[in-house]
Amino acid sequence: MLNKNRGYLYDEVLMTRNNPSFLGDLPSPSPNELETLKEEIRAFHHTLLAQGIKLDIDPSMPLVKQLQQIHGAARIALNREGVRFSGRHPDEQANEWQFRQLAEYLPHLVWSTLPDGYHVFFNQRWYEFTGAIIGETDGDFWSNLLHPDDYQRTLDVWRHSLKTGEPFNIEYRLRRHDGEYRWFLRRAMPARNNLGEIVRWFGTCTDVHDQKLIADALKESKDRLRHSQERLRLAQQVARIGTFERDLKTNTSAWSAELETLYGLAEGKFGGKLENWLDRVHPEDREGALGAVRQAMQTGTLEAEWRIVTPDGSVRWVSGRGQVFNDEAGQPHRMVGANLDITKLKEVEEELNRMAGQRQLALDAAKLGWWHHDPATKTSTYDNRYQAIYGITKSHSQIDEVAARVHPDDRAQYLLQVMATLDPVAPKPYENEYRIIRPDGSVRWIRAHGKAVFAGEDENRRVIGVAGTVADITERKQAEDAIRESESRYSALFTCNAVAMILVDPASGYIVDANQKASAFYGWSIDALRTMRIRDLNTASAEEIQAAYISALQGQSHFQFRHRLASGEVRDVEVFSGPVAASGHNLLLSSIHDITERKKAEVELAESRARLAELSTRLIHAQEQERQKLAWELHDELGQRFTSLNLTLHYLKNLLADEKTEVSWTGAIGEVTTLIQRVRDISHSLRPPMLDYLGLEATVGHLLEQHFAHSDVQFALEYVSLPAKLPSIVEITAYRLIQEGITNISRHANATKVSIEMNGDKNGKEFEMLIRDNGNGFVPELFVKSNRYAGMGLAGMRERVGLMGGTFNLRSEPGHGTLISVTLPLEP
Predict the structure, then answer these.
(1) Spatial contact of 805 and 613, defined as CB atoms under 8 Å apart
(2) Helix (H) or strand (E) holding 488
(3) Are strands 430-437 and 585-594 parallel, antiparallel or unpaired?
(4) Angle of helix 596-633 relative to helix 793-803, nearest 10 degrees?
């Protein structure tokens, strides 16, 4: 307590020569500490007496007074020790110094003691291995590090050496700083003076842990070999065992009559050669059997199994065991062994494996864990699923540990069930449900079944084992709690709900229950509704109703039907339905919403949208016809007039009289040429002729060439799963969208890559288009508000697609480019 619990080291008590005030710093000890302190005072007292310092301590004195007396005596002992060393001859001091230096270089734990065995020195390796503080293992305290099983034996041998002066030599286990015990060989020799008196003991501790383990493993291997040889000798005495002896030099074998019978041969009919034996081995096992024989030449032992085919064609299993003996030169020259007919054993093993497999399949299918309690060893064994259920990683433990995992609130009932199962007079099958607390703190519900096996009769009847299964029923328990809670909520929600609700049995189609709101909606009383089937309300066919039951039970929750009221009126209803469990049956709880007016509005809205789409298509078609007409007029009439003017101007050039007039003529020719090209451009933008003659793909390709062929922009066009010619309204709409997109990219995006993708969907009913660039990007919301782009604009593009019944989506982000995706119907 002085060196650990009270905060002082053992050597601090001895080495505090001039500062006894530390004793007054000790805090007041507790009653337990007081007893420990008294014991340490008595031990300290005996240590001082062993050093020849007599000290008269009155146990009735206060502890501080006793400690002060011990402190004074310790000072005397230290002073005496100092005189002992300081008064030595310089050579002795040099020898002592050399010993301590050498001890630090040796690859051992080095120590020394006084003649009476009092340990006064350990080298640094000792402290590094044990983790002890310097001085903590002095005296006899080193023995505290011994393995409990080696403690008394080691001290007895040490005391014998101290008494007789004989060298000290013993193997024991020593505790390392991490708590692991390792085997050490501890040796010590006494150092004597000229008179033959022991003046010092010098010793070492050598780590022999690995050698010890190897020696134990070697002994175990030898034991196994000896047991195998004993089994071989016993096997020769068992029925249906045949023996053989083979001369490895001449490759001849002598078989016993029993062995010939085992192989189905008449006595004396075995040929005596290795080849004759291989002829009887099953073809599929010959390579393995011969390999086992060859391996025996190397290992000295034959141990293998193979099948044989007897002359009548029957197949039997044989177990071969043998021993190889070497000659004086160490070369194999003889093999002696036996063959055992293990056919029945193999059949039993196969049946056991089959049954074990079936049992495991059954356990796995039922999600059951298996356990077995052995009362003799008080241990329990479990399978993997049991471990998973209990949250443990070991396959066995003490029976008490199993009970300790049971929830405290369930432990009493658990123990009563166990006691009833183990009752030798009137045992009851073990069947219980209880909670366990897993190592991670989680609580699980367990259902356990088991049965005890007894041996003996009457008063000698005793339990020899208990086995059974466990299942995790936590989810079931939670479900039961949820059901109870759900039923309570259902009762409140169902009865008082402001929505019409009915409970239907899908097996029979009858309405099990209805709330007041349903009664008001349908015009029948609740009692009347409880006598009706759902087909009495639903105008759908029986097949449609049955299909709806199945869909609702499988997870579909939303339906629309037409229901008939008590007045005969038929109303459109929207039904939300889901399965609920009640009294072991699956019912359907449905809420009924009258959507008659909404359906009428939807029909009217659909008609309006259809009319609007038709009008929009006509409008777009009319606009495009007008554009086409205007383009033709510009190209054919105005273009021809400008061309005629151009020709006239070229004719007049020959009539020019002076250089000044020729300059004016050149300017006029330039203006006319520009006007001709401008008219062509306007005509093409209003209605590109390529679109009518070559189709959308070629026209878009030409448009990309016009914009990017003479720039650093990489462009790509994809046209997949679409016919060469599309409906005119689709072609012109797609072209206008692409034209507007390319124009905006050229003006604002600063893009280096542009791609146009046009595809048909797998059903051939939709046109899909993507316009993609890697340019500046923008915030779409700000784009809409600013309306900074010319041409059709984003709103116009979206509106035009919407009028055609398509979809328009835009995704853009500053610094990450822009993606426009459009779908248009290919069929009206």
Answers:
(1) yes
(2) helix 474-496
(3) unpaired
(4) 120
* Whole-Å CA distances, 123 to 110, 118, 141, 364, 468: 5, 15, 16, 60, 58
SS (HEC) of 503-543: EECCCCCEEEEECHHHHHHHCCCHHHHCCCEHHHCECCCHH
Tell me if 466 sits within 8 A of 373, measured CB to CB.
yes
Contacts of 504 (CB under 8 A, 6+ apart): 510, 511, 512, 534, 577, 587, 588, 590
Q: CA 185: distance to chain centroid?
A: 46
For residues 506 and 548, what is the distance between their CA atoms, to the nearest angstrom?
9
771, 764, 766, 777: which is closest to 816 by C-alpha?
Answer: 777
SS3 string, 684-741, reads HHHCCHHHHHCCHHHHHHHHHHHHHCCCCCEEEEEEECCCCCCCHHHHHHHHHHHHHH
What was the pLDDT predicted at 17?
34
DSSP for residue 638: I
CA distance 538 to 534: 6
Distance CA 744, CA 750 (A): 10
Give dist(CA 448, CA 473) in Å, integer.
10
To 10 degrees, what angle do helices 596-633 and 728-744 make? 80
The predicted-structure confidence for 222-278, as pLDDT tens digits, reads as follows 888 877 756 655 655 465 788 898 998 888 988 988 888 889 898 888 988 989 999
> What's the longest Cα–Cα distance across the chain?
155
Q: What is the pLDDT of residue 90?
A: 60
- Beta 558-564 vs 379-382: how paired, if at all? unpaired
Give the pLDDT score at 23: 44
Q: Quick one: how far is CA 801 from the chain centroid?
A: 50
**Are 503 and 578 within 8 A, CB to CB?**
no
Place of tokens 């010319």: 790
Q: Is the dihedral of CA 726, 728, 733, 736 positive or negative?
A: positive
Please give the distance of CA 390 from its chain centroid, rounded to a whole number.
Answer: 18
**E strand segments, 295-344:** 301-309, 315-326, 332-341
pLDDT tens, residue by residue, 511-526: 988 998 999 999 999 9
Q: Write the CB contacts of 23 (distance below 8 Å, at least 6 apart in sequence).
A: 64, 67, 68, 71
In terms of Cα–Cα distance, which of 651, 649, 707, 641 is closest to 676?
641
d(CA 788, CA 782): 10
466 in Cβ contact with 452 (< 8 Å) = yes
Per-residue exposure over 96-109, b if at least 16 CB sit within 10 Å of its own CB, e if not: eeebeeebeeeebb
Quote the distance between the C-alpha of residue 641 and its chain's center.
Answer: 83
Structure tokens at 643: 């061309």
DSSP state of 746: I
Please count the other Cβ atoms lying within 10 Å of the Cβ belonging to residue 698. Answer: 16
How many CB atoms lie under 10 A from the CB of residue 602? Answer: 12
Quickly list H helices, 207-265.
Answer: 209-235, 257-262
Three-class secondary structure assignment of 185-196 = EEEEEEEECCCC
How does DSSP classify residue 135?
A: T
DSSP H helices in 59-148: 63-86, 90-105, 124-130
CA-closest candidate to residue 741, choices 810, 814, 683: 810
What SS3 state is found at 137?
coil
Helical residues (DSSP H) of 236-342, grouped into ranges: 257-262, 274-280, 286-299
By residue count, the chain amounts to 828
Q: Quick one: pLDDT band at residue 18, thresholds 50, 70, 90?
A: very low
Report the C-alpha gap between 108 and 186 in whole angstroms.
Answer: 10
